[in-house]
Amino acid sequence: MIENLLFELEMAAPQVILGLVNGAFYALLSLGLAIIFGMLNVINFAHGAQFMMGAFVAWMLLAWAGIPYWGALILAPLLVGAFGVLIERTMIARLYKLDHLYGLLLTFGLALIIEGIFRNGFGSSGLPYAPPAAFNALNIDIPIMFLPGYRVWVVIASVLVCLATWLVIEKTKIGAYLRAATERPELVQAFGVNVPRMMTLTYGAGVALAAFAGVLAAPIYSVNPAMGANFIITVFAVVVIGGMGSIMGSVVTGFGLGLIEGLARVFYPEASATVVFVIMAIVLLTRPAGLFGRG
Amino acid sequence: MTLNRRTLLGAAATLPALGGLPFRSARAQAANTIRIGVLNDQSGTYRDLSGPGSTQAVQLAVQESGITQRGVTVEVVQADHQNRPDVGSTVVRQWIDRDGIDVVVDVPTSSVALAVNTLVREKNKVFLNSGAATSDLTGAQCSPNTVHWTYDTWMLAQSTGGAMVRAGGKSWFFITADYAFGHALERDTGNFVKAQGGEVLGAVRTPFPGTTDFSSYLQQAQRSRAQVIGLANAGGDTINSIKQAAEFRITRGGRVKLAGLLVFITDVNSLGLEVAQGLVLSETFYWDLNDKTRAFTQRLGALPGNIRPSMVQAGCYSSVLHYLKAAGDMGVAAAKASGTDAVTRMKAMPTSDDAFGEGTIRADGRKIHPCYLFEVKAPSESRGAWDYYKLLGTTAGDQAFRPLSEGSCTLVRS
């Protein structure tokens, strides 16, 4: 009996770590979504496509321009973020006064178009992108498991970026403006702050976060047009569970759900894709505003 | 109002002619028109290995069959089944009931293929399956309206599984895509391994579609202490499994081997030779196999996404070519009137084409041709774009597929 339990625990320990790695992606993606929703009131369904674009831009930079991983980690979010700014200025900005549904439909349509373009250009099976050899130094090789250094880096990078984002929003002047503009945009504008530009930059920053996650994901998953679509549904569940627009909520829930999903993969693998949604249903029934939401 | 008696009379006189003409010509045309529907994954993980490339292959077959020169019209349409049986069934029902489709081609994703198999039989049309793997299409669920063309799970189990067992891999653990295809591939390979004196230590079922991280499953497989991890999945699932197995060094030390039970050339291209090298896999068509396959590939031209044809796309070409030969032979009207008769005629004729060479179709609907065991080349061995495989061995057609007597197909007993 006790032996059995020990065996199960030993099985579960590596899964907890692997779950954290997936949680790192959930956290980064839901963070971007939360920022965009909190500030713009837009449910950004193009987030998965923008994540995918980040991975593809990393691949293009390497294959076409010879720019390695580290360069891509900075350049890809900037390029995709600029693309986000363009979308916000030309399309999304026109929808702020309308119902949420319009923004959702627009961004969903954009996601389908972007994915279709990449599918036509690059096919569906994906492109290879090798992790830089430098990460082998971080490899964790212990008897119960081998953890590639690159995955360790993914967790570190994700935690750092989440923390930095949280600090910017909660502790800086820009963050204060942002939070104020979320509550009372007219008033903030009256104090001379350029609110429309702030909204544009916020959308750009949220998109850049998605692209950053995309570059992180490129060496792990095959770089393919559907990679974002696979993630985004789970990420939306994470945002709903954490509470729409809550920064802390999305980060904590992202890591937490990655963990739970990891455990489901050991104890009941068939349900591993569903467990997040079961939790979402339970949370919505008991706390409709989400775990960290202000209802 | 410019309507006067003359125009009114004129209109009245032309009405019956107008009404009658299209009706008559449509009927004459319908009797002489073969409608082919290519149903596959146009947007998901199996798009590259089937998708629009399959349609292009079907169009080449139509062109090369020479049937259009004899006054027969052939229309080719395509649709996306999104890997969902309900979507596939709805499309095929509409195709047959509303659009007069005579032949359904390709249909990868076994769960969709099994649904279409039943529907086509019910409507007495023709089902030429190239993309799906499940051996049940010519086994328990065989149909007089279906030909299973390119490959199946039994063939993969024997060829790739056999090679692994011969190399000493006696104990197996499966990572299985949780739907009809994965189950059939796991079952057929497991049976084969046990028949060879090996054992199956366990399996983990992964949700399909939507699983991208296989590291958890790979770790579980590694902990089972099996010598071989059998990947009973396909497309993006296989790509991610192999990629992450390399990342987690699952096969280091050489104690554990990875068996990609269904790996397509498009998967190898996606993985890159650096990761895929040394992988042993089975296919029934490779574009660079001989002069005829190279000529076929050239005639087919560039495929969407700039890929080389997969065995599934080659199978679409070959099966439609053979169907059109049979239809030309028995008369288009007769071929359209009864799908069963058309398939019976196809079975009576030997097959021959550039992609698969000479072959036959068995009573249970199984197309018979050789199966090739390949090894993926190292980057240093590859001499150019898409030069990926080394031929390790060939299984003759009569040995490559499940014996007729073992499939429990009712068509065989009667």
TrEMBL record, chain B:
Residue span, Leucine-binding protein domain: 33-377
Any single Pfam family the record assigns to this protein: Peripla_BP_6
Recorded superkingdom: Bacteria
InterPro entries: BCAA_transport, Leu-bd, TAT_signal
Keyword field contains Calcium: no
UniProt KW keywords: Amino-acid transport, Signal, Transport
Transmembrane segments: none
Cross-referenced CDD domains: PBP1_SBP-like
PANTHER family hit by this protein: LEUCINE-SPECIFIC-BINDING PROTEIN, PERIPLASMIC BINDING PROTEIN OF ABC TRANSPORTER FOR NATURAL AMINO ACIDS
Entry protein name: ABC transporter substrate-binding protein
